[in-house]
Amino acid sequence: MRILVLGGDGYLGWPTALYLSNRGYEVAVADNFVRRQYDYELGVESLVPIYPLQQRIRTWKAVSGRDIGLYVGDLQNAEFVYQMIRDFHPDSIVHFAEQRSAPYSMIDREHAVYTQVNNVVGNLNVLYAIADIDPKIHLIKLGSMGEYGTPNIDIEEGFIEIEHNGRKDVLPFPKMPGSFYHLSKVHDSHNIHFACRNWGLRSTDLNQGVVYGVETEETKQHPHLATRLDYDHVFGTVLNRFCIQAVLGHPLTVYGRGEQIRSFLDIRDTVRCIELAALNPPAEGEYRVFNQFTEQFSLRQLADLVVSTYPGDARIEYVDDPRTEALAHYYNAKHTKLIELGLEPHYLSDTLLESLFGVIEQYKDRVSWEAIRPSVNWRRTHNQATRV
Ligand SMILES: NC(=O)c1ccc[n+]([C@@H]2O[C@H](COP(=O)([O-])OP(=O)(O)OC[C@H]3O[C@@H](n4cnc5c(N)ncnc54)[C@H](O)[C@@H]3O)[C@@H](O)[C@H]2O)c1
């Protein structure tokens, strides 16, 4: 099977490309390196050093004997997307290549517009290219559990049966996300669903939870193969950030009372879920949604776990929540479809945290302390300066 990984230079795209290559698939990656550009813009960098993509690919060839193809370009450029898909002619396209930080999308008007244009236009170009070149190509698209928000009912996997005024239908699950980034994912989901219904495309929309961890079997094989580990307040995801704060002796910054509940998964399960989706493609015209996570925790539960596992002193500091989100709420999301396809989850454990502490310890001198404190505020005031 030929698999094209869009966003192959990113936190998840690179380990996914390595995993699939190691399992014998023909793999190519595409990226425009804009994620590295956000680091320059924000004055931060991955805690674990990451090597240029070309170097990563050369090292993988040396280590494994396997080739990974490379396409450098922007998905917003339709000509690039069409040429790449014609040239590589994949069976499946895994689409990770979006601006993925909620705080980044909430910095100001410019970042909100950029996020939505980049994500929605890139995804539309991919949909059109698949429809024009080969509608049999399976699009595996990364969405987010954040698309649903925190409704006061159980969250289903994409669709819900609704009875209204005596009539019934199965309809897309209502979405009420909490940032312009998450809204871009909702717009993508609608566009993909529409393309499947109208053009007969086949797609899997993976509503993924928050990913933690930094190592997979493949990335561990050589320092050049490492993936990024972000801890800054804009791109750092919560568990990775808590672990880094513990190792640095910085209090674990829990927003509000820490009662917000979110869904999580290990990076080793992300790569496996992608393979499971690729091995079990949907039918022609089918749009399906999998909730891609393995466990749910409140932020306080996670912080307590990190504090109790870390061998040194670690403490929690409750800070004002810069986001507008429900501080305490019901949360129960279904996630059975990937398990039914064969996912055997890695549950969050002390051993995982201990290995993460080890990686962080090794690179802790690279930390920029200014990057840790939250500075993007979801609330706007009328006279807030905004760049136009
Ligand atoms: N990391 C998580 O915890 C998480 C959770 C849920 C969903 N996701 C989704 O998974 C995907 C990957 O996340 P990640 O953490 O690896 O993000 P990342 O930012 O590390 O990687 C995304 C990659 O896509 C590239 N990219 C962005 N826009 C592009 C464009 N227009 N053209 C070409 N390349 C482009 C970036 O340069 C980057 O290398 C994202 O779509 C994200 O929304 C991630």
UniProtKB/TrEMBL annotation:
Task: Tell me the organism.
Answer: Sulfobacillus acidophilus (strain ATCC 700253 / DSM 10332 / NAL)
Could you tell me what this protein is called? UDP-sulfoquinovose synthase
InterPro entries found in the cross-reference section: Epimerase_deHydtase, NAD(P)-bd_dom_sf
Is-annotated flag, keyword Hydrolase?
yes
Keyword list (alphabetical) reads: Hydrolase
The record's annotation in PANTHER family points to: DTDP-D-GLUCOSE 4,6-DEHYDRATASE-RELATED (PTHR43000)
EC no. given is 3.13.1.1
CDD domains, per this entry? Answer: SQD1_like_SDR_e
Q: Name one Pfam family in it.
A: Epimerase
Family per similarity comment: Belongs to the NAD(P)-dependent epimerase/dehydratase family.
Positions of the NAD-dependent epimerase/dehydratase domain: 3-291
